[in-house]
Specification:
The structure holds 2 protein chains of 2 kinds. Chain A has 5 helices and 6 strands, in the order E-H-E-E-H-E-H-E-H-E-H. By secondary structure, chain A is an alpha/beta fold. Chain A has a single domain, classed as 3-Layer(aba) Sandwich (Rossmann fold), CATH 3.40.50.300. The longest helix of chain B has 26 residues. The radius of gyration of chain B is 27 Å and the shape is elongated. Classes of the chains: A alpha/beta, B mainly alpha.
Chain lengths: 201, 464
């Protein structure tokens, strides 16, 4: 129920296209390319957050060629650096949990999403945080996101609980609503700021 | 870039390397291929050597006078051409060569052959909204093309096309049902379902081949994402158990057992054959002394595979199969009879009589009155009984059919839907069995090389 009308605008454009155009844009200090993986129970709105982010700042050059489970979006920061997010969505159902390492391997950022109207999804989020702490790269920027913040009357997880858990685990925390677009851009901007910058060689 | 572009890329690459000034490049490529072929095969070392060679050659090309003033795209295309050329040359040397890969291929193939008999969309968390058998079939066909090409990129494109079909299916379904746009929660389950149903032979080897020999600089971003999904599907499938499909242990084992029975031909039960929506066919071949055996043929599932690896062979150690052509009696299955009847019905104009016998056949729901429901129910029950009796009456098999009438049936049935087993069973199958017993190399190879195809490029014998 996150983002009823969001569909990638150019879903049918492009062919398998530009398989390789990414190569040239390798990382330098001013233009970062980062892999971001989304984790969280199914139905918490992972893909809606991304679609909102990508659609909200529609970039006609972004190549959404195959589907919505992978999207990329570039943002410009105030210090004139650009960050290109390559966003990898994962299947949140329990039966696919064991496959997650294939996706978060090599990711610079992990965004763990739960639904504030489901304490179960918050438990699941904590499971992912532990998993990442155990098996993820130690330099990974980890973020905890409470989505569906527009559904206040159904809230099951308090802001304090989310914040406290995130702080304890050294994560950035934010509540978002993919439906109203609340805090979506802030989420990604905040992540971009926290990225370790490559040291110029 | 689509396939045509890459084809041009290769073409352009070969054209350029024909020029005298390309002599150094040609020499490097030739000596690499020769050197590689002389080394003992080792996937890890081979992969590193190839990747390193690509990297160096691309750097060389970048600075080479022949490519001076070329755009980034043209250089990219040269890189693709190089990769395609080299890997096509090395293909037989590196594809599915390690015994580990071959073993994994066989296990995976067998697992999918079993699981595909009973897995349902809901076992994988596919919502009914997002299930569409036709689109799934299309996606399967894309994936099955993976064995028709040799270059890593071309194989990768088969996977990406499969993913694309699935994504289109999901997007259309989401729009139609006003659901949220689909993400990985929807995508991965369908990909797994499609993979199981497609069961492309040597899937593991294909994935390893792409991983090892696709230029690393090109296996990035979206392509890397969808490739990872495929790896992930493989990983899920290879460890499928009761829990992974939300079945209880007993149910899962029962399903696996009956799937095994079906595949190994131990089942003599006609009804048991009909595990999934009537696509499976069984033909009973019986020798005079032996008990009837049956081979499932599932042509619609594996269109690209003329010689399906016979799982039967490994299963039937106890009873070596001796098939005496003289003593084979084919018994028509229910579906055969149905098709035969259907074709007869088409020949003669019996529609009027049918209407008299079954008054509701052409009725619309809106035409029915409450009073007619009882009548309809009686009619239905009679039909069901008749059907069951006829089905039971078919067992034990005793009829020998005339191949003429069977041929007629085949001719009338829509191509592709009816497994073309009749003639296959008479000749091919025994041959395959014989072949497989003295050649334990790879059951897939025959069909593999026999499939000449799109995407395959005839390369000149030498560069330059």
């Amino acid at each position: 129920m996150g983002c009823s009308s969001s569909l990638p605008a150019d879903r049918n454009s492009g062919r398998l296209g530009a398989l390789n155009s990414e190569v040239s844009g390798s990382n330098d200090a001013k233009n970062l390319r980062v892999k971001l993986v989304l984790l969280g129970d199914s139905g918490v709105g992972k893909s809606c957050i991304v679609l909102r982010f990508v659609r909200g700042q529609f970039d006609p050059t972004s190549k959404v060629t195959i589907g919505a489970s992978f999207l990329s979006q570039t943002i410009a920061l105030q210090d004139s650096t650009t960050v290109k997010f390559e966003i990898w969505d994962t299947a949140g159902q329990e039966r696919y949990a064991a496959l997650a390492p294939l996706y978060y391997r090599g990711a610079a950022v992990a965004v763990v999403v739960y639904d504030i109207t489901s304490s179960e999804s918050f438990d699941k989020a904590q499971y992912w945080v532990k998993e990442l702490q155990k098996h993820g790269s130690p330099n990974m920027v980890m973020t905890l996101v409470g989505n569906k913040a527009d559904l206040l009357e159904k809230r099951e997880v308090s802001v304090e609980d989310g914040m406290e858990y995130a702080e304890k685990n050294g994560m950035f925390f934010i509540e978002t609503s993919a439906k109203t677009a609340d805090n979506i851009n802030q989420l990604f901007e905040e992540i971009a700021k926290r990225l370790p910058r490559p040291t110029p060689s | 870039m689509d396939t045509a572009d890459i084809f041009l890329g290769l073409h352009d690459f070969l054209e350029r390397t024909r020029q005298p000034s390309a002599a150094d490049i040609v020499k490097s490529i030739k000596s690499f291929i020769v050197g590689f072929s002389n080394d003992a095969p080792d996937p890890e070392r081979g992969s590193a050597a190839v990747q390193n060679f690509f990297k160096n050659m691309e750097a060389t090309i970048r600075c080479h006078p022949l490519w001076a003033g070329c755009s980034e795209e043209e250089l990219e295309s040269a890189g693709e051409g190089l990769e395609k050329y080299v890997m096509t040359k090395l293909y037989t040397r590196v594809f599915a060569q390690s015994s580990d890969d071959i073993k994994t291929d066989e296990q995976l193939y067998e697992k999918m052959a079993l699981v595909q008999q009973f897995v349902q969309p809901e076992n994988l968390d596919i919502k009914p909204t997002f299930h569409n058998e036709t689109s799934c079939l299309l996606a399967q066909k894309e994936l099955q093309k993976i064995n028709m090409c040799k270059a890593p990129r071309d194989k990768l494109v088969c996977i990406l096309n499969c993913c694309k079909v699935i994504n289109n299916l999901l997007l259309n379904a989401a729009i139609a049902s006003e659901e949220n746009p689909p993400g990985a929660d929807e995508f991965l389950p369908v990909l797994i379902y499609v993979t199981i149903k497609a069961n492309p032979p040597q899937l593991h080897s294909n994935l390893m081949y792409i991983q090892r020999y696709r230029g690393q600089s090109r296996l990035v971003a979206e392509v890397a994402y969808f490739f990872t999904n495929m790896l992930s599907a493989e990983s899920f499938i290879s460890s499928i158990d009761a829990k992974a499909l939300s079945m209880n242990e007993k149910e899962f084992e029962k399903n696996m057992e009956s799937a095994k029975a079906l595949l190994s031909g131990l089942s003599t039960d006609f009804d048991g054959v009909n595990v999934q929506n009537g696509e499976n066919e069984a033909v009973i071949l019986s020798t005079e002394q032996e008990k009837p055996r049956c081979w499932p043929q599932n042509a619609s599932e594996v269109p690209a595979m003329p010689a399906k690896p016979p799982l039967t062979q490994t299963k039937d150690e106890k009873a070596p199969i001796i098939i005496d052509k003289e003593s084979i009696y084919k018994v028509p299955s229910l579906l055969d009879l149905e098709n035969k009847g259907a074709s007869k019905l088409l020949e003669e104009d019996q529609v009027c009589r049918i209407i008299q016998e079954y008054p509701y056949l052409f009725a619309h729901a809106g035409d029915l009155t409450i009073n007619e429901v009882e009548d309809l129910l009686v009619n239905y029950k009679q039909l069901v009984f008749k059907y069951i009796c006829l089905a039971k009456g078919l067992d034990p098999p005793a009829i020998s059919s005339h191949s003429d009438s069977r041929k007629q049936v085949l001719d009338h049935v829509e191509a592709g839907k009816e497994p073309n087993y009749t003639r296959k069973m008479e000749r091919d199958v025994p041959e395959i069995f014989i072949k497989q017993t003295d050649d334990n190399h790879s059951p897939f190879e025959v069909s593999f090389f026999s499939s000449s195809s799109q995407g395959e490029v005839v390369l000149p014998e030498t560069v330059g």
